[in-house]
Predict the 3D structure of the following.
Amino acid sequence: MAKILTKGLDLWYGSFHALKGINSSFEANRITAIIGPSGCGKSTLLRVFNRMNDLIEGVRTEGEVLMDDKNILSSDMDLVALRKKAGMVFQRPNPFPLSVYENIVFGEKIHAEKVARDRLDEIVETSLKCVLLWDELKDRLSESALRLSLEQKQRLCIARLLAVKPDILLMDEPCSTLDPQATAKVEELMRELKVRYTIIIVTHNMQQAARVSDDAGFMLLGELIEFGKTQDIFTAPRDKRTEDYITGRYG
Amino acid sequence: MKNTYRTQKIAFSLLFLATLLIVIPVGLIVVIIIQKGLPAINWQFLSDIPRQGMRAGGIFPAIVGTIYLVTGAIIFALPIGLLAAIYLSEYSKDNLLTRLIKLAIVNLAGVPSVVYGLFGLAIFVVFFKFGASILSGSLTLGIMILPVIITTSREALESVPYSFREVSLSLGASKWQTIRHIVLPNAVPGILTGTILGLGRAAGETAPILFTVAAFYLPRLPGSIFDQAMALPYHLYVISTQVPNVDEKIRYGTAFVLLSLVLFMNLVAIIIRYQFRKKKKW
């Protein structure tokens, strides 16, 4: 069963029609990549799933987005619950200017009434182990997160997100500021994480999409042109525009 | 080619001279005040009450009065100013009301200080019947420094990167939690700096306290916030213009104390800002 299902999803920024009738379904425990040229609406689509678009003035959304059979676009949707469930990894690693430790326990401190210190310690350890940072950082927990390398920062941001116990990871070009080696490590991490999470990744790097994703969607000018198994899309695209894009004749 | 070079040199020299012109008066003021005021400074001058019709003795009640007034002003202005700044930077939408509020703040900053004095007299002294008192004076000074505090606090809040708020919200924090845990802590140094600059301004103003609190001559310490008090700027005005035959040393000594107080506060503000810049790396 689909984890997330969009039905006739339209989105406008003021008068600009950014998403046009998107019908798609995202499966649990798979990595779905959304590809397409800059400005095609792929990040916008991603931000529908945790309603981050709500922060922008003048955004209007129509249609249905079912997440575990619940329409998250309805006005009585609990945004806190939604954002705990669907966490986001951003393009630029953006740790808070706090210690490594404080970064990870931020979510827990916000969501729980009162938390015992050893419970926090436990969260820090499991989260860091999940992103394979524990061995590197276990002696540097009180250091400022701003002093980490870019790759470590991005992993830390993922750890901070996992500490909130989401179901779905929305990744908005998570590797675009990383070098190839760091990118490979983060991709490796994604493969490990998909066992437990539903992952949607927006990327303009087609090799990355091909390497890491199970399903893929190609977007162009606000439309979802093609959606299916990654292998099919990359080897036998049904639409001419998809073919042009992945063979590099477009965008 | 050569001509361009010369024009550039002339331009640079002019710019440099203009900059130098700013430094000269500041330097001269400081040098003259120190030169003439420093000899008057001793323990007795700082800790004694004025004697012989302010022609001798010290300025202790004026120092204490100024500290009371400044403290009162900040107790009043900081919470209101900070809350207003949070509203303006985090919650307000760009509409007519917001623009009106912002315009009001800018204009409030431009109101001549003597007008604040009259306003304080009408509102606090007469209407609320606080009388000429530390309370009235503090409130008047508080209103005067509100724009400084609001403007600097707003800048401090707005300089916290948007990405921090975005992440915090994306982790399921509410808007208020985001402000409370992420935005405010990172804006504290900026807010502190603004507050101290406001304090310095409040400490140095004469006109707003003229009708609202300042006592011409009150050789004892105020007992409550409903008492009048002496204050350094007003005392300086009095001994410079209203009382004949005051020794120059006493006048410059008073000016020296006032200037030191204000410069000291500015210095603290600079240090806080410097420390913060060193730490911040985003």
Remarks:
- DSSP finds eleven helices and two strands in chain B.
- Residues 38 and 253 of chain B are 6 Å apart (CA to CA).
- The mean pLDDT of chain B is 89.
- Chain B has one domain: 57-279.
